[in-house]
User: Fold these one by one.
Assistant:
Number 1:
Amino acid sequence: MMRALKKWGGFLAVAVVCFTLATYVWTNNAGAYFSLDNADDYISRGNAKGDRGQYQEAVADYDQALQLQPDNAHAYDHRGFARFMLGQYQEAIADYDQALQLRPDFADATFFRGVAKLILGQYQDAVADLDQAIQLQPGDADAYAYRGDAKVCLGQYQDAYVDYTQALQLQPDYVHAYVGRANAKAGLNQYQDAVADLDQALQLQPDYADAYIVRGHAKLRRGQYQEAIAGYTQALQLQPDYAGAYFFRGHAKAHFGQYQEAITDYDQAIQLRPDKANAYILRGNAKAHLGQYQEAIADYDQAIQLQPDKASAYVRRGNAKAHLGQYQEAIVDYDQAIQRQPGNARAYHSRILAKLNIGQPRNIFSDNNQALQLQSDFSDDY
C-alpha cells in the first residue's frame, strides 16, 4: 500500500515535507548540533533522523521528548509514525491512542492508526478511524483510498468503489485508487471495467506491481488461469520479494492442475511470509492432490497453529487422515471444524463418509440434513 505520506520519506513516502532550518542543518551536516534542552529539540532531531530512514534512532529521541514532556501530543504522533515505518503496528496504534487523547482533532494520527489497523486485519476498526479522518480532512484522497481497501477486505465492494471514485475525483492521477477500484469492480464481477482501471494505472505507473496482481485476480476469477499466471509473473519481475504474488500464482497453477509448480510458489510465499495460514492450507491441498497426505497433514498442522479457528484447515486435515484410513482421527477434525463453523457443509458431508467407513451409520441422517441445508464453500479446493 503506497501513500504520499505527510511527514517523512521512506518505504511508503513519495513526498517529503519541509522541515525547520535547524532540522535541515542537522540532516545535511553530520557535524551540526544544537542544544537539547527541551522536548521540541528532541522532536526536531527525531524528525531529522526519520527523514534519513533512521526510525529506531528517531524513536529514542521521541522517548527523550516524552520524558521531558509526557503530555506532548506531537511526540506521541511522531513516535507512532516511526514505529509504523518499522512495522511495529501495535506499538504505533498505542502511540496514536495517546496522541488522540491529547489532541482528538489530530487527523494524521487518526489516519495512520486506521492504516495500521488495516494492515493488522482489523478492518471494521480501520473503517471507523478512516471515517473520522475524513471528517477531519474531507479533501484527503488517501483516507478515501485506504477506507476503500478496508471495505474491499470486508467484501463491501460497492461501498469501496464509491470511496475509490471519490479519491480519484480529489486526485485524478492516484494510481493506488485506480488499482483499488479495479479490485472492487472485480469483486462486483465487472471485469471489463476493472481492466480499464488497471490499464489507466499502468499508463500512469508502468512498474506498479499491484496493478498486475489485481489483473491476475480478475483473470483468475474468470477462469483464465494462464493469463492470471502471466499477470502474477509480471508482478514478480517487478518485485521479486512479493509474497502475495507467489501465493496467488501458486493458486492459479493449482487451478490449472500444475500442483508441483504450485507447491514451489507456495514454498516461496511461506519463506517470505511464514505467518500466513492460508499459504500452508493451499500448499497442503496441492500435496493432497499429489497423494502426499502425511506432508499435507504437516501443513494443516502449521496452519492450525497459526490460526486455531480456521475451520477449513480442520476439514482438509480430516480429509487427508481419511485418505490414510485414519477415520476416527478424521472425525475428530470434522467435529472441530463444525464447532468453529457450524455452517460448514463440507465438514458434515465428510463426517458422514468417515462414519460410514468405520461402520457407524448412526446420526448420519442428521449430518446429511445439515449438509443439504447448507452451501459448501469450495474456495480452498486447490
Number 2:
Amino acid sequence: MKYNIIIGIVFLVCLFVFLPTVQAESGKMFKVESAATELREAPAQEAAVVTELTKDDKITVFQDSDGWGATFYNGDKVWVALDQLAEVNDIKEEKKEAAEQDVQPAVSEIDTESSALAKNGQLYHVKAPVVNVRNAPNQNAEIIAQLNKDDKVTIFQDSYGWGKTYYNGKEVWIALYLLDKDSESADSKKSEEIETTVAAPETVEENKQEETETTADPKNDEKTETDVESKHKEEKQTATTKQNSEKPFAGYHFVIDPGHGGKDPGAIGSETNEKTLTLSTAKKLSEQLKNKGASVTLTRTDDTYISLEKRANISNSADTDAFISLHYNSSAQKEARGIETYYYDGGESKQLADSVQASLIDHTDLHNRGAKQADFHVLKGNKQLALLVELGFISNPEEQKLVQSESYQEKAITGIVAGLEDYFT
C-alpha cells in the first residue's frame, strides 16, 4: 500500500513537470497595462525575448518569483514582469464585455444617427470593382456581403490593414487597401447605410469573377493552395493588361517593412543608424509603387518599435502580393560591402528574390552578394511571397556615405520596383 502511494505521488509530480501547459483555472488572469511588454525565457530583464504583448492583452500567470510571473507560450515556460500587468476578474470582465456587446448600436443607428461612435469613424469609398465584407480581419474569413465601386462605408477601427464597420448590427471587416478616404468626414456627412450598398446574397457568386480580392472556393476541396496562388497571379496579370502601361501594378498590394525602429536602432554607423535609413527608403519606395498603381501598406510610418511577429501578421492578414523588408547591413570587417536579398524557401520566393537582386545590382552597380536562403522570422512567419533586402553596409565608411545619399536611394528604389515589375508583369 505504501509503495502504491509513493508511485502515485511520483506520477503526479512528473505530470506537473512535463505538461506543456497548465489549466487556466489554476492561475490568475492578468491584463497588460503598458503599451508593450515582453515575454522572456527567464525571470530577468537581460533574458532573451520570446514574443511581445500589447496593451489590454490577457495572460494567465501560474507562478510568481521576485516580481516576475510564469506562463506558457507554444508549450514553453516564459516569464513576464508583473509590474506591467493588472490582475482582472474573469467573471466581471466577461460580464462587462457582454454588456458592451448587448448595447452595440445596429448599423442603421451608426450610419443615420449622430452617435458618439459615428463621430469617431472615418468615411471611405470603395475604389475596387468589388470588395468582400468579411466576418473577421482575415482574407480567409467568411464573406458576409460585397460592396461595389464608389460605395461608401464608415470605418471605426483599423487593425493590420483591415477596417471594422457594422452590417446588420454585427461587426464586419474590409481590407483597407481597397478603400480610399472620402473627402468628407463621417461626422460632417451621414454615411449611406451599408445594407443599401452591399450586394444581395444571390448576386455574390455572380460578382466573384470581377472581385479584386482572392477567394478560395470552400466547396472545391480538391483545389490546392498552389492552384489558388496561380489563379490569383493570372487574374492579377489579366487585370494589369487592361490598365494603362504607366500603371503596371494596378490591382497589386505590397507590404513594405522598414526594418527596426523605436528602441531597436538596428545597425549603428558613425554617421547614421539603420532604422532611420530603412524608414526613409521605405517611404520613397511606397510612393513609387503607388505611382505605378499599387496599393501599399507600411508596417511602420514613424520611429516606432514593431515586433517581428506583428510585421509578419500585417502581411498575413491582408491580400498581399509581396512583403519587402528593407535593411542596411553591418559587419565587423570594415571592407564588407554590397547588396544581398534573402528569401525563406525555394520556388516563387527564390524567383522573386533573384529578380529583385539582379535589378538592384543593375541599377546601383554595387557589389553583388547574391540572393540567399535564410530563416529570418519576417520571412519564415510570412504566408505570402516575402523578401528581406540588405541595401548596403553602413559599417563600411565609403558605402555608408553612399547609401545616405538621395541619388543612391532613388537608384535602389527604382531597382526594387523594376525587379518586382519583371516578376509580376
Number 3:
Amino acid sequence: MATAQEPQRVSAAEFIRGFANWRLQSAREPVVVTHHGKDAHVLISLDDYRRLDGDTDDVAGTADRLQPSLAGLVESIRDGVILIDRQWRIAAANPAASDMLEKSCADLIGVPLTTAAPRIEGSFLAQHIIRLIDHRERFSGDIPDILRPRQWLRIDLVPTPIGGAIILRDVNGTMADFAASDARQALIVAVEAQGQIGRARISVREAVDTANDVLTGMLGVDAAAIRRVRFSALLAIGHRAAFAEALESLVRSGEPTRLASQIITRDGAAIDVILTIAEVRGPYASDGAVVLVTRRFA
C-alpha cells in the first residue's frame, strides 16, 4: 500500500541562500522551512494556494445555502419556536408555536410576548426570560400553566443575536404517565400495608418474577424458592387448567378476571383462595400479569 511521502524540509538559512531552487521545488510539492529545527513555514505553488482559497469559498457558500434549509427545518419541527427581541416582541414563530398560541404567524409578528401568552407575565418563566435577554442565560425545564391551566410544557430558552428563542414542547402526556405511575406505586404500598393480600408478578409464560411476603407466607417459602416457577404449579392440580384458561383469556381480551382456586403450601396443605388476574401491558404487547391472592372462607 502506498504511503504518504514526507515533504522536503530546509532550514531558513539554506532556504534564503537557495531560494530560486526551492521555489522551483515548491511547484512540484510543498517545501517546509524550519527555524531552529522546528517547522515554521510552508512554501506552496500559487495554484495550490488558490485551490485552498477555493475550498474556503466553497465552505462559506455551503453555509449560505444552508440558511434557507435551517429555516425550513425550524418551520417543520413539532416543537413550537418563538423568537423575541430584547423588548420581548415576537419577531418570528413557526407553525407549531402558532397552533399552541391559536393565532396565525402573521398576527403574532410584533406582538408583545405577554400579550400573546398573558400567563407568562409574573410567572416563574418570566424571570428566566429576563436573564435570557439581559445575560444570555440558557434555561430548560418543565413548567405548568404557561399557555393554559394544567398544561405542562417543556421550555428551552436559547440566546439569539436579536434576543432569544423560546422552544415549547407539550409534555402533558408524559406528566400524566408519571402521575399514573405514582398512583400505581401508592396502590402497591397500600396492598402491602393491608397485610392480607398476596401479590405475584408473572410473565406471559406464567413464570413468577416477584412475590410479596403475604403470598410467600401463605406458601411457607421464601421469594427465591418460587422465582421463575410457573404460577399454576403453586395451585392444586384440579385448578391449574382453569388458571391457564383464565390467563389466556386475559391476554386475548385485556379484561381482568377473577376465579376461585386453591394454592398448595410447602407442607402439602390446600388453602382456598380467590385469584384476581390483571394484565400488565407493554407498549407493543402483553408483558405478563399481576395476580392478587386472597383467602376464601366458606
Number 4:
Amino acid sequence: MSRKPLDLLSLILFASLILSLGTAYAQQPAHSLYEESRTIIPDNLPWYPVVVIGDNRPTNVNSIQLPPIFYMVVDETKEIYPVAVIGTGDHTGMGTQEQINVLYNALRGLQNVWLALGNHDLDAHQEKYWTRVIAPDHYYIDDIPGWRVYVLNSECRLSMQWKAQVNTIWNNLGNRSLILVFHRPIYPRVEHNLDPERANYLLNKIAQHDHVKLVLQGHWHGYASEVKNRITWIITGGAGAPLYDYPKTPPDNATIVLERNHYIVLILYPNQTFTYEPILAGDGSGALKIIKINATAYKIVNTKLDIFKKPAWIPVRLHVNVSGWDVYASLIVPPNATIIVNYEINGYDVKITSNATNWYAYATPPGGANNAVLGKPVDNVAELKLYKLQTTTTTATTTTTTMFATTTTTTTSQAPSTTTIGQPATPTTTTIQQTTTRQGSQTEILAISAAIIIGAIIAAIFIVKKK
C-alpha cells in the first residue's frame, strides 16, 4: 500500500476519534443530579413526604439498562412526587460512565435526589465520574425542618476515611434529629453487614452524641427493620437487584421480608417524629393512579399493597402552576381509596377542595421560598391567597469555558407572606456552591468536533494532492 492512502486513513481515524471523544464529552451533564434536582423545601409545612429506594442494580452487572422493576418504582415515585428521594446505594451494575448516565436520566424530573454510593457503584473505579454526575461521595442536607439527612460512604477504601466522615456528622447540628444513610447495614443482622471495625466506630459515636432517630441502609437485597436503642434501623434493598432468600430465621426483635421488591414511603414531621410504610413493587402490588378529570380536577386512586401484601397508605403531592406560582396539594391517600382534588382559581386567589382527611396545600413563587403560603383545610377546603409577582429585567455577562471550574450561583427569590396580600415580601438570597464539569453547551462541543473533522479531511486531501 502506498504512503498516501495510509496518511489519509490515519487522518480519518484521528478525526473519528476526536468526534467520538467530543460526543462522549457532550453527553456529560453540566451539573450533577444532586445539584440539578435541588429545590428549596419550605420550612413551614406540616409534614414532608420522602421516598427511599435501594439496590436497583441489574442482575447482569455489565448491563447498561436498569431492571424493569426499577422503572416501575421510578414511575410510582414520580406519581407520588415527594419533596426528596433517598437512595441507599448499588444504583448501577458496576458504576461505568454509561451506567451512571442511564441512572442520571432515569431520575431526572424528581426533586432533591440524595443517593449514597454502594459497592457496585464503584466496581468500575469511576468514583470521580459519579461525584461529577450523581452526587458527592458523602454529604448532609439540613433542608427539612427538624432534621439532618447525612449520606455516608460506607465503601471508602480506608478506615480513616470512614472515621473522618463519622466525626463530622454532628457538626453544627443544633437541635435537629439525624437520619443516617449508607449502603452496608449494621442492624438488623442479616449475614451481609458492615465490618465490625467501622460499625463499632459509628455505634460508639452515636452512643456519645445521640440525636440519631432513623438509619436507612441497603446492600442486603430484601426488607428488614429493627428498633434498637430507640433508633429505627431499616434495610431497603428491593428496587431491582436479585432478591435474597436468607437468613431463614430473622434476628431477635427484627422484621424481615424475603424476596419481595419494594420501596419505602416516609413522612417526616418538624417535631422530629416520622412514620413510614414499605410499599410492594411490581406485578400484583396494586396501583397508584392520578387521573386528570378536567382542567381543574384530579382523581387519585390507591390500590397499592405494602410489603406484607396488606392495603397501604400512600402520600401524594399534586402540582399545578398558577400565575407563575407553584401550587401543591400534599395528601395522604388511604388504602383502597379514591380521592378527588379540585382547584378553583380566581386571579391570585386559589381554593382547593378535597375529600382527603389528612392533607394541606401550599404555594411558592418561581425559584421556591423558605416560607410558603400555606393553606390548611377547613371543611375540606384550603385557601391560598397569592400576590402578583413583580417582573424585572436584568442584563448579565456570561463567560464560556470548556475547562473544569467551580462557580458560585446566587439565586434571589421572594419570600411570600401569609398575611399581607398584594404587597411583595422581603426578598431572600440563597447562595449555592456548584461544581461545573463544563460550561460549553453540547451543541458547541459537537460543532467544534465537526470542525476538527472537516479540517482533518481537508488537510488529508491537500496532503494527498501535494504528494
